[in-house]
Amino acid sequence: MPIKLLPHLRFLNPSVSVTGFPSMNLQPTVRTIPTFCRIFPFKLQYLGLTRINQQPQLPSVRKLSTRPFRTRPGSQSSGSDFNRTRERGRGGEVRASKSLIEDEAELSDWVSDLGSKRNNKYDDDSDFKSAGSGERRGGRERESFPMKRRRENDSGESRGRGRMNRNSANSFSRNDNPRFNRRSDGESRDDGGDFSRRKSGGIERGNGNSFRGNGNGNSFRGNGNSFRGNSNSSRGGSSYSSRGGNSNSSRGGNVSSFRGNSSSLRGNSSSFRGNSNPSRGGNSNSFRERRNERDDGGGFKKEGMQLRREAKFSEDDSDDSDVEDEDEERGKTMNGFEDLLTEEVSDVEDDDDDDDDDDGSTLRMNARKSIGLDKEDDVKSVKRSSPGNDNSYLSESRFDECAISPLSLKGIKGAGYERMTKVQEATLPVILKGKDVLAKAKTGTGKTVAFLLPAIEVVIKSPPVGRDQKRPPILVLVMCPTRELANQAATEANTLLKYHPSIGVQVVIGGTRLTLEQKRMQTNPCQILVATPGRLKDHIENTAGFATRLMGVKVLVLDEADHLLDMGFRKDIEKIIAAVPKQRQTLLFSATVSEEVRQICHIALKRDHEFISTVEEGSEETHSQVRQMHLVAPLDKQFPILYALLKEHVADNPDYKVLVFCTTAMVTRLVSELLGELKLNVREIHSRKPQSYRTRISDEFRKSKGLILVTSDVSARGVDYPDVTLVIQVGLPAEREQYIHRLGRTGRKGKEGEGILLLAPWEEFFLSSVKDLPITKASAPSVDPDTQKKVERALSHVEMKNKEAAYQAWLGYYNSNKKVGKDKCKLVELANEFSRCMGLDTPPAIPKLVLGKMGLRNVPGLRAK
Ligand SMILES: Nc1ncnc2c1ncn2[C@@H]1O[C@H](COP(=O)(O)OP(=O)(O)OP(=O)(O)O)[C@@H](O)[C@H]1O
């Protein structure tokens, strides 16, 4: 699909050439760590990989080419994976906006536990969406903390729904849950873990709950906060190696895996081989069609993505009453977040301190030449990827070259997959051998299949579940940060399982009725469970027999692992990890794996895990076929510019499919309403919408063309919308990773795409965090007076309550950003500028309580009520 460049985007300073770079050695440099700190052995493992003398790349300023867009030749970057984080870390302002919780929807699950304590100090009438303490957390609150339950009347979803009393709706009260003793539970419970939390009312800390494990058991000791993962079988360190792959310059492989050993430090430079991998683009259509096929089964949500395996997803025609209530609960649990965060941080530190598996305090780096070609591999050897261009996401290897069961191969074929993608080629042999893997691969390159396929093979090899088995074990647990992503992963699993009728998949996600999920799990036991963290924790605590079933888990997957290990989810993830057997295989996948993530991934992974990256060291984490631009324009020009950009794109691309990312849910709603008033074909999706609506819109956007989806970060990660032509990010992305994931909604499977980041002048500091990415600066399109007037008129039709909510949300979001939120007076000035941009003469008043929580009481320029 040809992407037409926006003709009015003139790149500034075309005379300025791309910054020159010293030639880069792509071999990962091993730096000896002189003396290893015993306390932080894991951190040192990863620090040992830091590239030395890397030159940061300035944002390139390029002349705008004309269509068709071509991959930048020989694009260079200073983007050492291992260095980036450190560089960013130095620019503290860039990290300042690191998200505490990026998805409000999933937060609802997370905080539901807190909510039940009924210790809310917040005003339910407030629309406050930020905990108001962003500075301390260094995170944004974004859509995450609605204090007031605001119904989404516009969708018609909210009428007639009752408030859910979670306790009464749940037929399995905690006290009904039997004491769980792992030992009594079959094959995987040889660890002697004592699961005693039910007795003391759940796993909340301070209750004296203990989840202790000896031997192979998970250890969740002390006051419940300190997760100590001891492993009998996982000593030896993780490994790093590089394997052949493709590269623009034939010098380097693009697949690397990391293996470290905690007992010694040896540096073997990775073996990079360049192999030719001609880019082929011929088979992408079939994937689109495959997606569309999936409406034949019973959907698990009335309006949702319907899954083929009818039996596994019972239809829920019921309303979303409890969905809404869960959203409401969210707003009641904001207090205590700071405390939680503090505890989480100390937990992590404790982990390091307490880990008793660090018998070696030095790092061994052992670069493997090729995992896929290891002679001792059980699997058939996998052909080398061959050089090609960055567009080539497929490898030369075929699935039938791997040790995959014939019925799975049939499923793969049915899905239209012939060759493995590079990440699949790189990870499958390793995962099939039973190793823990941390995998990094660019967005839209088939990571889901990469972890699902070997996980399915584990299920196949497991003893069949007897029909009379009361609590059949869940063998594979896939954790996803968002509901959309969980649904999508389940759909993919069902596609692959087409010829395995005895293997069931189920989804448990926030925003749906817990009781319904409980019933469904009772009537249709599954071996593969896809879940969002909060809801899974709900089930662990409230669904009879669920914890027992989880003790059957053999494979644990964290999709978007870096996000799940981020502060917002980590507590839940730790609890979930504590609830599955220690003797398991764990797979962590993401398009972004920061150094911090590597340092903390041991909370989930065995020490001898492999880190496999298909992103060549020194190359960008984004796709070269996606053209990235940024525009800087004052706030008052941004709505007209956004409109102009969209109009232009729509005019040039008959099959346009655009995602517009906004900073918060309420800003998303405002922008969506505005664009709707401007007669653009828009939909909106964010966490303040009922789940049924979200699922419906997500499904519609997946299938459609000629549509603009205005969205919050619920669509930032993982969601596989085919053929997105343009991604526009309006305002400050929460962090570098979020920018990359949002951008990754386009350019999937080697397709071309375009990304525009629209910033205000005072947001330009963000660019330093993405300076290694090929983002070119473009001048803002001139806005003619007619367009300006049109936008102003449209704004005047936007509902006042939506403007008020957007103003408050905007303030909360930027207040939680260390850089912008530092100077409160300036922040308020900017917020009031935003208010004027919405056509308001005076900024909306904000409840005093909310202002207090935001630390903005008595700041000049704010109106309190
Ligand atoms: N071997 C394959 N051949 C062709 N297409 C594939 C193959 N494996 C997966 N796909 C398709 O590639 C697309 C992207 O896959 P997926 O969503 O798993 O990407 P991802 O790497 O997880 O992206 P993200 O980082 O955004 O989560 C999907 O439409 C999927 O069906």
Automatic annotation (TrEMBL):
Enzyme Commission number: 3.6.4.13
Taxonomic lineage from the root: Eukaryota, Viridiplantae, Streptophyta, Embryophyta, Tracheophyta
Location of the region described as Disordered in the Swiss-Prot/TrEMBL record: 58-99, 114-394
Every Helicase ATP-binding domain range: 428-611
Keyword ATP-binding: yes
Protein name: ATP-dependent RNA helicase
Any one GO MF annotation of this record: RNA binding
Keywords tagged on the record: ATP-binding, Helicase, Hydrolase, Nucleotide-binding, RNA-binding
Organism expressing this protein natively: Dipteronia sinensis
Domain Helicase C-terminal: 641-796
Chain positions of motif Q motif: 397-425
Database matches in Gene3D superfamilies: P-loop containing nucleotide triphosphate hydrolases
Family note: Belongs to the DEAD box helicase family.
Skewed-composition ranges (Polar residues): 73-82, 165-175, 384-394
Domain of life of the native organism: Eukaryota
Function noted in UniProt: RNA helicase.
